[in-house]
């Protein structure tokens, strides 16, 4: 497909995290648009973007824990989507394929950030314990608690508990042992339960 990455990035930058409420696309809708994108259709790409940018951003935010990183990762997802769309063969639902691509890109993007490796392997991170727990769910929703988790525990919790990946898949995505994935999940769960118990 003949189209510059700069043009695509401009499209993404101007619309990121501003999803338009439209009827949920059907599998046939997605397949049709994907075929059009594979033939070089920018309008089909923009239509797909409008339908999925909110979903992609929410997953990126859960994985990164920071709005600025999530916005940058979302942009990267849609830039790479244009480049990788030719790999989609229609054997699974597009939303499932996009979910996997988003997870991979968001995690890869995190690894490129300064200090990521130091943060993700700092098992003894105690900063989060020093923060005061919120008093009610209404004041700060669960997403805020999740973002307070240490990096690796958050990644494992989001991928396993919220996004449905098996521990074997989480371990493969994060390049960690399966046992480590399970341990980090239980660590995250314990921390969340402790914070929730302090409400009221």
Automatic annotation (TrEMBL):
GO terms assigned for molecular function: DNA binding; sigma factor activity
Residue ranges annotated for the RNA polymerase sigma factor 70 region 4 type domain, each copy included: 142-192
Keyword Transmembrane helix: no
Key words, A-Z: Sigma factor, Transcription, Transcription regulation
Name listed for the protein in its UniProt record: RNA polymerase subunit sigma-24
Residues covered by the RNA polymerase sigma-70 region domain: 48-114
CDD domains: Sigma70_r4 (cd06171)
Entry-linked SUPFAM superfamilies: Sigma2 domain of RNA polymerase sigma factors (SSF88946), Sigma3 and sigma4 domains of RNA polymerase sigma factors (SSF88659)
Sequence similarity: Belongs to the sigma-70 factor family. ECF subfamily.
Gene Ontology BP term (one): DNA-templated transcription initiation
Superkingdom: Bacteria
């Amino acid at each position: 497909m003949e189209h510059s990455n700069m043009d695509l990035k401009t499209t993404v930058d101007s619309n990121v995290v501003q999803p338009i409420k439209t009827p949920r696309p059907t599998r046939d809708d997605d397949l049709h648009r994907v075929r059009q994108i594979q033939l070089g259709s920018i309008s089909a790409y923009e239509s797909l973007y409008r339908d999925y940018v909110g979903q992609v951003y929410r997953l990126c935010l859960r994985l990164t824990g920071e709005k600025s990183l999530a916005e940058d990762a979302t942009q990267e997802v849609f830039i790479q989507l244009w480049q990788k769309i030719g790999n989609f063969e229609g054997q699974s639902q597009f939303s499932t394929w996009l979910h996997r691509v988003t997870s991979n890109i968001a995690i890869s993007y995190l690894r490129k950030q300064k200090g990521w490796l130091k943060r993700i392997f700092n098992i003894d991170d105690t900063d989060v314990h020093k923060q005061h727990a919120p008093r009610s769910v209404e004041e700060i929703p669960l997403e805020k608690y999740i973002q307070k988790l240490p990096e690796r525990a958050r990644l494992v919790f989001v991928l396993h508990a919220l996004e449905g990946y098996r521990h074997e898949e989480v371990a493969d995505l994060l390049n960690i042992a399966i046992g480590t994935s399970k341990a980090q999940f239980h660590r995250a769960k314990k921390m969340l339960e402790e914070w929730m118990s302090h409400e009221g």
